[in-house]
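User: two proteins, same treatment. go.

Assistant:
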Amino acid sequence: MKGIKIIKKEANELRKILIQEKQLCTEYKVMSDENFVYMPLIKDYNAKTIDNIINKFDVEIEDFSFNKAQYRPKNFMDYLSDNISKEEMEEIKKSFDTIGDIVILEIPAELESKKKIIGKAVLDFTKRKSVYYKKSKVQGVTRTRKLEFLAGVDDLETIHKEFGIRFKLNPSTVYFSPRLATERSRIVNEVKENEVIIDFFAGIGSFPISIAHVKNAKIYSVDINPEAFKYVNENIKLNKLIGEVIPIEGDINKVIDDLPLADRIIMNLPGTAKDFLDIAVNHIKEGGILNYYEFSSDYDSVIERVNEIASPRKTEILDIRKVKSQSPGVWHIGLSIKIE
C-alpha cells in the first residue's frame, strides 16, 4: 500500500499533519528503521493535499508492506456494535460512575433486557473488577440505592482513591459520589487551620477525611447510617491525617446539642438540607461559614432561603456555583456563605 518515507527527525511533525488532514491510515502500523519512518496513507487519500504536504518535507510516496494494527476499542460502545443496533446504542447513557474497581451503570428501561450484554461490554472496556446496574434512585435517610450485579466479580466492597486518599465503602449500603471529588477539593481549600467543623450528613467521611488529610482541623463526622459510621472509622485508619475526625452515629437533630459551636458546617444533602438550616444557623459561630447544598434551578432562591433562616444575622456570600447537573434545568448548587 502507499506510504511516505521520511527521516526520523521530521517524522513527528509529518505525522501530526497527516492526522490533522485525516490522511494517515490507522488500520496499519507506522514502521521505522535506523534512519527512517514509514507512514501508511488511507486508500483514497487526497492527492492534492498529500502533494502539498510532501513538498514541505521533500519526500515521495512509495509502495510499502505495512502490518495490520491491532484494533483497540475507543469506548465501551465499540464492544456493543455486534449486539445492539445503532438506534439502541444512542439511548444508552454513556456516562457511568466508577468507584474503586466497581462500575455502576444507568441503563434506559427499554434496554433492560440487554443489561447483561451491556455490563459485559463495560467490564471488558474498563478492565475493572465488577459492573452493577442502578436499580433505584438514592432513597431514605440512609441515602442508599439498590444495585444489581451484571458482570465480573459480585463483590460490592471496594477502596476508592481520590487525591491521595483512600475511601473504603460498599456503594449499596452507604452514600458516596465520585463526581463530588472537585467539590471536596474546593472545600478543603476553603478551610483554615484549627477550624472546628461539623459535617451534618457525612456519609463515609469523604469531606471530613479530605479536610483532615491536609489541614489541622477538628471535624465532627455525623451520619444516621450505621454502615456509614462503620466505614468512616475504617477510613480514618486507612489514611494519614493531620487533623482529627470524630465519627458520630446519629440524627443531627438529636446529637447537635452535644457538639461545640462550629467555625464551619457542611450540609451536603441537597434534597432536604433546607429542613436543617435553622439548626445549622443556631450552631455556627459569629463569622462562621456554611457550606450549603440544594437542588435548584437558580441561585437566587438558594440565597434567599439561607438569608431568611439566618435573619437577623447578616450574611456574606463567599461563593455560589453549579456543582453538577441533577436533571434538565435543575442543578446541584453549592453555596459558601459567612454568617456574621
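Protein 2:
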Amino acid sequence: MTRVKRGTTSAKTRRNVLAQVKGYRFGRSKKEIQANDAIAHAGAYAFAHRRDKKNDFRRLWTVKINAAIRPLGFSYSKFIDALKKKNIILDRKIMADLAENNPETFANLVNEVK
C-alpha cells in the first residue's frame, strides 16, 4: 500500500479555519480546536439572530405606527382591529414607513378607517 502524507491537506484545513476566526479574541483566533468551537457557536448565534431580527423589526414597526396614531385619537390595537374590519390589507412595514415618511397619507388612511 502506498504511503499517504496529509500535511498539506491538514494545513489547508487549519488555514481555512483560522481565516474564518480572524479578529476573534484570545485562543479562539490562534488555536484550531478553540477556533472550531468558536465557529460552531457563531453559526448557531447567527442562525438564531437572523430569526430574531424579524421580530425586532416587527416590534419597531409597531412602535412607529403607535407613535404616529396616538395624536390622531387611536390606539395601535384599535387601529389594527379597525383595519381588519374594513378589509384594508396593508402590512405593518408599509404602514410604519407611511407613518414616518408620509404623515399626510397615513392620516388619510386613519380617517378612512374611522
